[in-house]
Amino acid sequence: MTAVNVSELPATELPAAARRLRDAGGRMHMAYARGRSDGQVEVRYLAELDGNGDFQLWRVDPVDGELPSLARDIPLLGWYEREMRDLFGLEFLDHPEPVPLVLHEGAQPATPPLLAQADPAQPMAFRAQPWTLPEVPEEDLQYLPFGPIRADVLESAQFVFFYLGETVLHYYPRLFFKHRGLEKRFEGLMPALGAVLAERVSGVGSVAHALAYAQAVENACGCEVPPRAAWLRTLLAELERLYNHLHYHGLLADATTLKVGNAQGRWLEEQFKQINGRLTGSRFLRSLITPGGLRRDLEPEWVHDAINDLRADIGAYLDQLADTASHLDRLMGNGVLPLRLALDQGATGPVARASDVDADLRRDHPYAAYHAQSLEVGRSQGGDALARFEVRTQEIYASLDLIARLLHSLPRGDVYAQCRPAPEAQGLGWAETPRGALFYAVHFDAEGRLARVKIKSPSFSNWRVFPFTVHGTDMMDYAINEASFGLTIAGCDR
User: Fold this and answer.
1) What pLDDT does residue 137 have?
2) 362-374 pLDDT, tens per residue?
3) Are residues 188 and 112 in the same domain?
């Protein structure tokens, strides 16, 4: 079982430690700040040296509210540092992009929102001011701001294009228009109620968020989930993966103007949501996972036959997409993400695996019942939209096979064990969502209530990566490239 090794680092040694991690082929997952009971703020960095070892957690105390920025050596940390600057008031020296991320220009909080002394009931002052755009020195440059209100039912975001003719020279996404402050909302909750909130961070990732959160609480409490609950949690996670990937294929088909392909993908997605509803009472599989296991038992034996009835339709649909030249032509060479860039900028999930990053938390750091199952992790070296399409196709077949094995070997027994945190307990939990690696770090106060919850979502990582695949591409390919990433804004904004 994966362990989390905690070490204290002086701020002065932080840059050297980061370079050693990078040079040894290690990877940083996230960084976050938390206020301690003594009133001080500390910063934590979560890393691992290789793909199947233990996690390393560095605890660092800022000096006079400042830390050296690590973004030049480990670029993916750039967004985390900007987030901590906005929400905790920390400064990161020599940051390559020292502009707001979560709080847009003009926001004037009386106190940084995640500090203990901040009053969540006090409205945040705002004064309109111009926002910072990157300098793109080109003659005859055209400028197109698109959003934040867009067509259809898309989430709010603004995308700024600098282009010449049909070529996008620079692309700049502005997110966090609907930042909900969910990490703040966890504060003061009892553990069971926190699971209800976690399910609502991102609707299409309800199982993954509840699972990662519950496992973080269980890690903090030292409690063990009954085997049947672990098996059923894995079943729920794979059912969530299937409907998400089928939705993805429908959305991608729509982007390449395959209207029948879009309709067929959405129909198959709907069939799995109906299975979810019949099994659990929730099409999004909510109100089941809780710290200690499940709220109630399930009777999933019929699911095997229900999914088998759909296998032929799924196979035919995926084969037709893979045999449609007009579809493949728009995917090939679109939105290329090289391996080195994927690693440096923190890509995760199918996006990373399509760029030949060999990483999947289900296999590398098994949780729930994944330790008892063989798992094929699909990868590609292409790095383009076609590779991302192929990896998700492979994952659909792998999930179908995994569900069949889970149902065949499902143990009997209880589905819940009492799980109570000790005062000041802390824990880490994770899950491989349909979009990639998700982490929850939880900290409890002296009364056993949540004092700090940090959410590292996969879309926060992949939205950072995405612009690098847009620069220098054709404007007409943009929508297809975005669809191939399978991003969500709710998961990023939180």
Assistant:
1) 66
2) 999 999 999 998 8
3) no
pLDDT of residue 78: 94
Could you tell me the two tokens for 257? 């103007």
Q: How far apart are CA 333 and CA 325, in angstroms?
A: 14
Residues 316 and 192 in one domain: yes
- Domain residues for the domain of 76 are 1-119
CA nearest neighbour of 469 among 255, 171, 175, 138: 171
322 in the same domain as 232: yes
Please name every residue paired with 172 in a beta bridge, in sequence order, or none if there are none.
160
Question: What mean pLDDT is reported for the chain?
Answer: 91
Beta carbons of 455 and 47 less than 8 angstroms apart: no
Q: Do the Cβ atoms of 170 and 468 come closer than 8 Å?
A: no
192 and 112 in one domain?
no
Of 64, 98, 119, the last residue of a domain is: 119
Tens of pLDDT, residues 237-255: 999 999 999 999 999 999 9
Total structural domains in the chain? Answer: 2
Asked if residue 98 and residue 190 are part of one domain, the reply reads: no
The separation between the first and the last C-alpha atoms of the chain, rounded to the nearest angstrom, is: 29
Q: Which band of pLDDT confidence, cut at 50, 70 and 90, is reported for residue 112? A: confident
DSSP code at position 96: S
216, part of any domain: yes
> pTM above the 0.85 mark?
yes
41 has which bridge partners? 35
